[in-house]
Amino acid sequence: IATDDNESLREFVDALMPARVAEFMEGLDARESWRVLEVADPERRVEVFGYFEPEKQTALVHALVGDGDAAAMSGLVADLPADDRVDLLRDVDEHVVDELIPLLPIEDRRETLRLRGFPEGTAGSVMTTEVVCLKENLSVAEALTEISKQALGVETVYYSYVVDDDRRLLGLLSARQLVTHYLNPDQPISELMERDVVTVLAMDDQEAVAETVADYDFLAIPVVDDNRRLLGIITHDDIIDVLRAEATEDALLSAGMAPLESGYLRTHWFTLACNRGVWIGVLFFAALLTAFALLRYEEAFDSVWWLVLFIPLVISSGGNSGSQSATLVIRGLTDGEVSLGDWRRVLRRELLMGLTLGTTLAALGFVSAWVLTRQAPEGHTAPTLVEVAVVPATLLLVVVCGTVCGGLLPLMFQRLGLDPALMSNPFVAGIIDIAGIVIYVTVAMAMIGGLAGG
Amino acid sequence: IATDDNESLREFVDALMPARVAEFMEGLDARESWRVLEVADPERRVEVFGYFEPEKQTALVHALVGDGDAAAMSGLVADLPADDRVDLLRDVDEHVVDELIPLLPIEDRRETLRLRGFPEGTAGSVMTTEVVCLKENLSVAEALTEISKQALGVETVYYSYVVDDDRRLLGLLSARQLVTHYLNPDQPISELMERDVVTVLAMDDQEAVAETVADYDFLAIPVVDDNRRLLGIITHDDIIDVLRAEATEDALLSAGMAPLESGYLRTHWFTLACNRGVWIGVLFFAALLTAFALLRYEEAFDSVWWLVLFIPLVISSGGNSGSQSATLVIRGLTDGEVSLGDWRRVLRRELLMGLTLGTTLAALGFVSAWVLTRQAPEGHTAPTLVEVAVVPATLLLVVVCGTVCGGLLPLMFQRLGLDPALMSNPFVAGIIDIAGIVIYVTVAMAMIGGLAGG
Predict the structure, then answer these.
(1) Are the Cβ atoms of A368 and B147 closer than 8 angstroms?
(2) In this structure, are residues B76 and B45 in contact, taking their beta carbons and an 8 Å threshold?
(3) What is the CATH number of domain A132-235?
(4) Residue pairs spanning A and B at CB distance below 8 A
(5) Alpha-carbon gap, residue B53 to B60, rounded angstroms
(6) What is the CATH number of domain B6-117?
(7) Strands of A159-163's sheet, edge to edge?
(8) In CATH, what class is B133-237?
(9) Alpha carbons A43 and A40: distance in angstroms, whole number
(10) Is the separation of the CB atoms in B118 and B124 below 8 Å?
(11) Do B336 and B345 form a contact (C-beta atoms < 8 A)?
């Protein structure tokens, strides 16, 4: 770049794969990147641009339009696949969008405005409209010719869609079928095409669509309207992006954070602090309820010196078993293995699991509590065997409470139409914390003489 | 099935897509499923079988071989793609494997034994060896003819690999290039093929391979040996399976569980109880350390009545902020955004974050603690303003400790060659629990007169 040698720059860009070129350009700023893109031929330019990080794409658009070069940028934006174009314009400032859209060719402009109408997170918002469409009456050779003509403008040539005059979907023809029958050029494609095509609706949730494609091992899935008219397709790379984004989103939710727009290091420090701060604040107030509960039972802790020792143990045992159950059920719901109708099975499983794990921990807790309380400090008496039994009895109840709540709360959230991942580990743990303290003191009052009146 | 009507059964199997047929057969047992598969033609049979759940596949193999029908089963097993065959044989009992392998055709047998040599979790273990290979000197038309001949035996025709006589990889030719140049049948493929091919080694970790493919939007990635000889390819559907499995694995680890072989409801109850029990047990002993810590400081809690109120609050504030940091860093490592070299940036970010979040919670905690301790029960005196300041000071220190530990521990685990997801929320929380209690009491001793001598 430093030497201004356009010829060798162009050679460099053309020799490597677009994804590699984009990698090499990671260190360049917006202006420098544009210098490189400018010398490449338009087709390459769009490909390389497509591999930039979203932040870099946005910065490039802002820089160019800011410099009054909106015309050059609109050419590149027009050449982007329709779904990527819409994604990009979503991230760009509104006044820049207003400047760019009128500069797009009429066809692309209409397309863009239409796709922008689908809410984020729906199948419509991630689909591309550039699809190979074929008529039913073609032969293999005619279909290949037709595809080779349409090839430049579409995102994939591996699936072609056979439609009628109203663009209603009749069948799916894979490039595999065509290549396999390359030596029978006259065979009609209507004999080869798959008529039983799995489709999704434009307003379907993108996560559900991704799971469908993943289950069926499709390369792409067609998006249709209520009249089964073909609107576009969602391709395997978009599906992978959705699956990755959802995995990160669920992980963040499960640790008590809202999903981020971009990665950990790329997110601005202040944005991250606000996101984390809000949730930490909410969880703080949940935890504050434990302080109220403890205040209410202050007398119990005051008169039985060793009760305080096991507060964190009781709380964390319940929280951990609850987190396990919640995570298992949330993953089951995400993978489509568990559905709302399974709630009885989940309840039965978690009840049994709670009893098993609880009994195990109760046994461990009994021994530990007995050993620990033998070290009574001066002026205190060690509790009796029956008194120590408060700890195991509490552990059993708290663990059962944890597994059952952890198992059922995500299902309840799903039933209410909320993301079950919201019923995440810290929230389940927060609920169990308070339940744990109440159970602990109630059991203690029942089992330790002289405390009952409390 | 009830009516023994083979003809209509076969029609049913042939009319629908294989994935749909497999869905319809979900309710059938192993014997019934075999009845249906038997009437289908061999190609269909293999496809439908490929869509069964792994458990169903295994059950079918066991049932058939158990009934002495190993020959029929070996035919189906031989027709499976090599990678799926190896996966299946991994799940099947050893004596059944020993019965089946000798019945496979010599080529398939060799392949299977070779692939079984790659450890689970490596690129070699998920690759398929059935790939279209082309010589460099072909034209477009010759390549299409060659592909149409090889098409039946391979997993994908969308990427063909150009190799020399030693099977060394020279280039990649996509079906897209071929179809686009369908009207120039004489063009040499050496002009069209991509020479800068991204490859992976057979012993590479499957998760890293999946991230590479996802980053580049590939349909498949070639697996080569140290001499760049083509061993096989990993296709997009395997990549999606790996990504899904890893997401579930990380989620389970982050809730303190070992990864499961299959889903929540499908895993045997006892297996699940053992898995969860072991981890709950480990976490229990970590939590038990808090009881020891509290015992050591018993006197402090005895003489300052209100300290006990805020134990859960202090612990959970540290645990929650630590979980957030750990999850962000673990996801960053998984997505490839964060690397070991970033540890200074992570440290700086988390320190700053801890100070910010800690100050916020300290302010909230100061007010809450003041209000709460005004309700002193009979016979107790409310603490002074300075004494109450123990709570905010502790919160600040605990939150900083949480964010810094949460941010750095996954990096440390990565550095040690362990899965950073192991440094999961409950473990970070467990460490912070103990640190929280120690900090709490130390701060209290420093700030409350008469307690210092402890």
Answers:
(1) no
(2) yes
(3) 3.10.580.10
(4) 366
(5) 11
(6) 1.25.60.10
(7) A132-134, A159-163, A169-174
(8) alpha beta
(9) 8
(10) yes
(11) no
CATH top-level class for A269-447?
mainly alpha
What token pair was written down for A350? 């978690």
Query: Given the DSSP bridges, would you call strands B230-235 and B220-224 parallel, antiparallel or unpaired?
Result: antiparallel
Across the beta sheet with B200-201, the strand order is B200-201, B220-224, B230-235
Distance, CA of B256 to CA of A132 (rounded, Å): 48
3-state SS class at B220: strand
pLDDT tens readout for residues A135-169: 999 999 999 999 988 887 788 888 999 999 999 99
Do the beta carbons of residue B288 and residue A328 sit within 8 Å?
A: no
Residues of chain A found within 8 Å of residue B277, distances taken between Cβ atoms: 356-357, 360
Q: Give me the pLDDT at residue A423, please.
A: 67
Interface check for B192 against chain A (CB to CB < 8 A): the answer is no
pLDDT digits (tens, 9 = 90+) for A73-96: 888 888 888 888 888 888 888 888
Quick one: residue A379, left, alpha or beta (phi over 0 = left, psi -120 to 50 = alpha)? Answer: left
Residue B267 identity: T
Supply the Cα-derived Rg of chain B in whole angstroms: 31
State the pLDDT at residue B453: 45
CA dihedral of B9, B10, B13, B16, whole degrees rounded to 10 = -100
| B258 at A interface, C-beta within 8 A | no
Confirm or reject contact between A244 and chain B (CB < 8 A). yes
ipTM: 0.74
Question: How distant, in Å, are the alpha carbons of A147, B332, B410 from that of B353?
Answer: 54, 17, 17
Count of CB atoms situated within 10 Å of the CB of A135: 15
Cα A414 to the center of its chain, rounded Å = 16
Chain A from 355 to 394: CB within 8 A of any B CB: 356-357, 360-361, 364-365, 368-369, 372, 375, 377, 380
Q: Looking up tokens 């050779």, which residue turns up?
A: A141
Domains of chain A, residue spans: 6-117, 132-235, 269-447
